[in-house]
């Protein structure tokens, strides 16, 4: 079966008990902890910064932390999140003045670099940087808020990105974020994704293990084809 990763977004977690809640979702079978970092400038919402990443590391969370920066500019926060214990860091190309430099900064800080594409952002930003990418994150909602509905034409864009990855001959993860649920995860995987961010679909359920297992069951049917 394919190597699929499930990455719960802490945007929908219980911030009053964040360490416990993250521990609980990992014990329930999640692979990666996803951070949605919003600055009320690049997106119209404000979440949290590197101190939350450091606090979770100090609490004892050892799972990979995948930081999605919805901020502009990006370079200062890349350094701060890397120092705070991030594993993967991605940013939106239009939010950085020097995309190649920001990607190299992530690499130099020892983290895995990614680029993020909004539903209407051109994939031309992939030109000339494929060799630096560990992952590509495709937004299936407009960024800023959890709990939105998956935008259906993202599936076509996913297939396009998957093709670009295959043409590059590189092993680049393809991550999808926004409106991912049990009932659409198989279609998303079928279109080429291998990493799934889900916030509300997991954290709004009383039993995280059940919903994560349901997602894995759906993914098993894709892996088997
Ligand atoms: O980054 C986001 C918005 O900017 C995502 O949509 C969020 O992380 C996932 O939320 P949900 O699974 O509830 O759609």
UniProtKB/TrEMBL annotation:
Q: Which GO terms describe its cellular component?
A: cytoplasm
Q: How is the cofactor bound?
A: Binds 1 divalent metal cation per subunit.
Q: What is its EC number?
A: 5.1.3.1
Q: Where are the transmembrane segments?
A: none
Binding residues annotated for substrate, in chain numbering: 9, 68, 144-147, 177-179, 199-200
Q: Does the keyword ATP-binding apply?
A: no
Q: Name one GO biological process term.
A: pentose catabolic process
Q: How would you classify this enzyme at the top EC level?
A: isomerase
Q: Which residues form the active site?
A: 36 (proton acceptor), 177 (proton donor)
Q: Which reaction does it catalyse?
A: D-ribulose 5-phosphate = D-xylulose 5-phosphate
Q: Which cofactor does it need?
A: a divalent metal cation; Mn(2+); Zn(2+); Fe(2+)
Q: Which UniProt keywords apply?
A: Carbohydrate metabolism, Cobalt, Isomerase, Manganese, Metal-binding, Zinc
Pathway assignment: Carbohydrate degradation
Q: Which InterPro entries match?
A: Aldolase_TIM, Ribul_P_3_epim, Ribul_P_3_epim-like, RibuloseP-bd_barrel
Give the family per the record. Belongs to the ribulose-phosphate 3-epimerase family.
Give a short account of what the protein does: Catalyzes the reversible epimerization of D-ribulose 5-phosphate to D-xylulose 5-phosphate.
Question: NCBIfam families given for it?
Answer: PRK05581.1-4 (NF004076), rpe (TIGR01163)
The protein's name: Ribulose-phosphate 3-epimerase
Q: What is the lineage of its organism?
A: Bacteria, Pseudomonadati, Pseudomonadota, Gammaproteobacteria, Alteromonadales
């Amino acid at each position: 079966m394919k190597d699929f990763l499930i990455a719960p977004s802490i945007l929908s977690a219980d911030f009053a008990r964040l360490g416990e809640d993250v521990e609980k979702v990992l014990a329930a079978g999640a692979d990666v902890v996803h951070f949605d970092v919003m600055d009320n400038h690049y997106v119209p919402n404000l979440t949290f910064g590197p101190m939350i990443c450091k606090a979770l590391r100090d609490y004892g969370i050892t799972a990979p932390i995948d930081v999605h920066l919805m901020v502009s500019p990006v370079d200062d926060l890349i350094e701060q999140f890397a120092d705070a214990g991030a594993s993967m860091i991605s940013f939106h190309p239009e939010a950085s003045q020097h995309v190649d430099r920001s990607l190299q900064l992530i690499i130099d800080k020892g983290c895995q670099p990614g680029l993020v594409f909004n539903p209407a952002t051109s994939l031309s930003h992939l030109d000339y940087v494929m060799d630096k990418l560990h992952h590509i994150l495709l937004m299936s909602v407009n960024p800023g808020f959890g709990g939105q509905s998956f935008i259906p034409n993202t599936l076509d864009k996913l297939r396009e990105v998957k093709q670009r990855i295959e043409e590059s001959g590189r092993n680049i993860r393809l991550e999808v974020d926004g409106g991912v649920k049990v009932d659409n995860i198989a279609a998303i995987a079928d279109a080429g994704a291998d990493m799934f961010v889900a916030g509300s679909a997991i954290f709004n359920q009383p039993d995280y293990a059940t919903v994560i297992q349901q997602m894995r069951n759906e993914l098993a049917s894709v892996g088997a084809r």
